[in-house]
Structure formats: structure tokens, C-alpha cells
Amino acid sequence: MHPIQPIPPGPGQESVWDYPRPPRLAPTSKHIQIVVAGITIADTRRALRVLETSHPPVYYIPPADVHMAYLRASAGQSFCEWKGQARYYAVQVAGRTIDQAAWYYPQPTPAFAALRDYIAFYPGKMDRCTVDGEVVRPQAGGFYGGWITNDIVGPFKGEPGTMGW
User: Fold this and answer.
1) Does a structural domain hold residue 5?
2) How many whole angstroms from its chain centre is CA 124?
3) Average pLDDT, stretch 107-111?
4) Which of 162, 123, 115, 125 minimizes the C-alpha distance to 146?
5) In terms of pLDDT, which residue wins out, 143 or 95?
6) What is the pTM of this model?
7) Within a domain: residue 4?
């Protein structure tokens, strides 16, 4: 295994190698939007970010800022050692269904209680996700849901050769 060589952050950038493990929950007032089939299904300045070593941030959006009419319960669950048991949503917009497009924690662990019912979307499954107007690049790997923007540097878990991180 090659040693990890973090990319030094430039002015106004964050390195995912400066994020903690266990992860930290941080509020953000950045403008988050999610668009599918030309319809904005989520729009907020009240998101919470989960920041974890080697991962780009995952943005969790309060349900009040999501058009819940476009979400349906989806099969499956997953478990995070830090946040607890996650459940999934499918997104249904304009006759299109995107299965397991988003997830949430109905009963998160006490350390992440503020995430209760907040919704995280996989940016790679949406038509467009933006942070302050910048189009997000999805974190590599089908399981991860990190949002990569120009103010975040890696390397990021999920890319080829990162399985053992």
C-alpha cells in the first residue's frame, strides 16, 4: 500500500485529511440545491455537514426544505458505526424513479441526534446538486455520498486504491 499523500489545501480550501474520525457534525449556511428533471426538489441554507477523515462532506437537508412529495420510502437499510441505522428514499419526479437516491436516520445515535430525519442525497444519482451555485462532483464508489466542490481537496476515499483506508 502506498502512503497517503494529502493534497495541500490552498486559500479558502479544506483538506478532508483535516476532518476528524469519528466524524463531526457542522451546520452550514451555504446554499444547497438539488434538481431532478428540471425541478428543484431541495433548497436550503440550513444544511448540516458530516465531516469525516478522507471523505468529502455529506450534506443533510432539513425535511422542511425538501419537497417531500417527490420522495417515497425505498427498500433497504444500512448501518453507520457513528450515526446508526439509515433508511432510504426513492425520488420520483416527472415519471422517473431513482431508487435509493437519498437516506436519513430516523433514530440517530446521541452524538448525531441533530441529524434526525434530515435527508442526504447521492449527488451522482441526481441531475444536479449545487453548493453556492457550484455543481457538485460525486464521491467515487457506489456506497459513498460525499459532495466534492473546488473548496475541498483529497485524495478521497472511494477512488481506486482506497479500499484499505
Assistant:
1) no
2) 10
3) 97
4) 123
5) 95
6) 0.96
7) no
Host domain of residue 95: 18-153
2, part of any domain: no
Please tell me the total count of domains within the chain: 1
* Burial grade of 15 (CB within 10 A; 0-12, 13-18, 19 or more): middle
Is residue 1 predicted with pLDDT exceeding 60? no
Residues 46, 126, 84, CA angle at the centre, nearest 5°? 60
The cell for 164 is: 484499505
* pLDDT tens-digit readout, 126-140: 999 999 999 999 999
Tell me what pLDDT residue 2 has.
Answer: 52
DSSP letters for 10-52: -TT-EEGGGS-SS-EEEE--S-EEEEETTEEEEEES--EEEEE
Q: What is the CATH number of the domain that holds 23?
A: 2.170.150.40
